[in-house]
TrEMBL record:
Gene3D superfamilies: 3.40.50.2300
InterPro entries: CheY-like_superfamily (IPR011006), Sig_transdc_resp-reg_C-effctor (IPR016032), Sig_transdc_resp-reg_receiver (IPR001789), Tscrpt_reg_LuxR_C (IPR000792), WalR-like (IPR039420)
One Pfam family recorded for the sequence: GerE
Biological process annotations from GO: phosphorelay signal transduction system; regulation of DNA-templated transcription
DNA repair among keywords: no
Annotated signal peptide: none
CDD domains: LuxR_C_like, REC_DesR-like
UniProtKB keywords: DNA-binding, Phosphoprotein
Origin species: Saccharopolyspora antimicrobica
Domain HTH luxR-type: 136-201
Domain of life where this protein originates: Bacteria
Protein name: LuxR family two component transcriptional regulator
Domain Response regulatory: 6-122
Alphabetized GO MF terms: DNA binding
Amino acid sequence: MGEQIRVVLAEDQTMVLSAFAALLDLQPDVAVVATAGDGAEALAAVEQHRPDVLLTDIEMPGRSGIDVAAELQRRGDPARVLIVTTFARSGYLRRAMEIGVSGYVLKDSPIDELVTALRQVHAGERVVAPELAVAAWDRPDPLTAREREILREVATGAGNAEIAASLHLAEGTVRNYLSTAMAKLAARNRIEAANTARDHGWL
């Protein structure tokens, strides 16, 4: 079936990671050269193994799959990125496409569809789950990068002082960013703003 597709597989749920690896290894033209349990491990594995494709989840400890894809793009790494996720959130897909991700499919797709998507991505095509292709452009992400960063901290339970220290900002600056984000999202408080942003895939 031609050359082997070298794959790094990133997924924070151990059982899912093992299942994906086992299923992909059954394909004669696919070789899983490394696995990773979080974003940092995924970046290190790509750097070390130089795969053709990084197949990654979105929500992982540390850096998300989208963060990893953005960093690979910044580095000029040629590895293509195929995101496989349970999250059918249009905001995630929009951000993924904007940073050059090659594919976005859902975990509940049959394994045959996942393998087909992997082959298409390797061949230079762009693959998007049909059920998301139209919805992705319904509502644009209203948040700035800094607002998104602060809301991610809110989602972890951090208070304003902790966020300020973590991001090297004045506490008043954090409050201002949160106020703006809450207004954009029509949220009554910081927690609701973070939840709304996460539900839309903007975090």
